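User: Predict the complex with flavin-adenine dinucleotide.
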Amino acid sequence: MAPSRSAQFDLVVLGGGPAGLAAAWEAAIAGRSVCVIEEQPALGGLCATVERDGFRFDLGGHRIISKRAALVERLRALMGDELEERERKSVILLDGVRYRYPLVARELVEKLPAALVARAAVDYGLERARDAIRDDRDERTFRQWVQRRFGRTLYDLFFGPYTEKLWGLSADELSSDWASQRISLLNLADVSLRLAGLRRGGARTYARRYLYPRGGIGALFTRLARELERLGVVFHTSARAVALVRDRDNARVTKVRVTDLRATDGDDVTSELRCGAVISSVPLGALAALVAPEDPTLAAHAAALGHRAMRFVNVLLEGPGPVLGATWVYAADARLSITRIQEPAERSASMTPPGRASIMLELPADPASAAWSEPDEALASRLLCELASVGIDLRPRVIRAFSTHARYAYPVYRLGYQRHRDALFSAVSTIDNLWTVGRQGLFRYVFMDTAMEMGFAASRAFAEGRRADSRALFAIDNNPTPHELASVLR
Ligand SMILES: Cc1cc2nc3c(=O)[nH]c(=O)nc-3n(C[C@H](O)[C@H](O)[C@H](O)COP(=O)(O)OP(=O)(O)OC[C@H]3O[C@@H](n4cnc5c(N)ncnc54)[C@H](O)[C@@H]3O)c2cc1C
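Assistant: Here is the predicted structure with flavin-adenine dinucleotide placed in the model:
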C-alpha cells in the first residue's frame, strides 16, 4: 500500500532489504509509525527469490548462518517449521578436477600433482623465512596478504585467478581487508599446507550447517513483510527516494522526496513524506547525493567507491536432480567465466517442481560490459558450453534459462577505498536524525545477519531518541569466522 501524498511518519526507511526491514521491525515493535521506500517491485533486496514455472531462484545462493543467537531465535519464531536446517556440500572445480570442500587430505594426495605440492611447500618455506627476517612486511594488497600466508604457487593456482574473476581487477589493486572475510576459501591453502606437512594441528572446524527457508531466502523477507504490515508498517514499492529535504539549520531531515516508478505518463510522480527520522540502507554514495546533490567532491568520492555487479543465469532442467552432487561449486577454473554454480534444490526441495532440477550460474559482470546485456538465451548457451568443456554437460536437459541482475552485489575494496568511504560517511553524519546501515549503506562486506543487526541497532537508537551515530554500527561487524558461526547452529 502506498502512503498518501501528505503522509507523516515517525520513521522513513530507505530500502526494503534485510537491513531496512529489520529497522522497520524494531521501530514498529516500539510503537512508531514507519514507512519503507523500496525501488524494486518486491521486497528483500539481495535476499529476494524469484519464481518461474514453479522453479525458484535466489539472487546468488544465500544461506542463514549466524552466531547471533537472539537473531536466529527471532527468525525461527517468525518462520516456524518453514526454516529448515541443512548441511552444506561444496566443491572446488579446478582444471576440470573436483575437490570436495572442506578438502579431504586423501583426495588431495590422489588428485593434486606431487610436483605442485612440492612447489607449494618450497614457496611456503620461503615466505616463512622472509617473515623471520622482517615481520612488518607490507600486506596492504590482497596478493601480498595471500602470498605471505600461502606462497606463490597456491596464489597462482587458485586465489589469483578466482579473485581476479570475481572482482574484475588485479589482486594488486584489491585491499587485503577483503581477505579476512573469505576464510572459507582460504582454507583451501590451509588444508593443502597441512597435507604437505607444513602446518600442524587438528583440522579446522568449518560451518557446515545452516538454516534455509522453504521457498527460498526471499520467503523469510516475504514473511517478515507480512508481519510488518500486521504491525502497521506502510510499504511504498517501485518507489525511489530522490531527495532528503532538511530544516533551516540543515541539521535534520524533515521530508523524503519519493518518485513513483510505476506512474504512467502525465501522472505526478513525486511525493513528499514528512518524517521524524530516516534510516537508510541505500548505497552510501547514493545517500550522499540525496543529502547534497550539488556537491562535486562528494560525487567524486561516490564514483570512486565501486560495486561489483552480478548476473545470475537460472537454468530450468528436465529430469530429477541432484545434478552437481553439491550445494555449490566454486569455479576456480580459468575456462569458466562464472565464479560459482549453485543447485537450489540442495538447499530446499521446494526450489524445483517434483521430478525436475535446476542450476544457477553466478557471473560477475560490469554493467557497461557486453555480458551484462547479452540476451539470456545466448548467454546461457555460452556458459553451458563452457561448463560442458570441463565435464558438466547439461545442454540436453535444458527447458529454458532466464537471468536476474544485482547491480550492487559486492562493495569493491579497491586499495584506498577507506578514504572515499570516510568522506561520504562524514558528510551524512552531520545530520542528527539520519542513520546509514547495511551492506551498501556502510559500504561493508557484511552478511544478512549483520545487516539486520545494524538495522535493529539504528532503530533502537532512534526509538530511544539518541542522535544518529552510524559509526557505532561498524562495531557490529566483527567478521566472525565460520568456526564461531558454527557454534550457534543447533
Ligand atoms: C551472490 C551473493 C550471495 C550472498 N550469500 C549470502 C549468504 O549465503 N548469507 C548471507 O547472510 N548473506 C549473503 N549475501 C549478502 C546479503 O545478500 C547481504 O548482506 C544483504 O542483502 C544486505 O542487506 P541490506 O539490506 O544491507 O542491502 P540490500 O539487500 O542490498 O538492500 C538494499 C535495498 O535498497 C534498495 N534501494 C537502493 N536505492 C534505493 C533508493 N534510492 N530508493 C529506494 N530503495 C533503494 C535496493 O533496491 C535494495 O532492495 C550474499 C550476497 C551476494 C551478492
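The chain has a mean pLDDT of 88.
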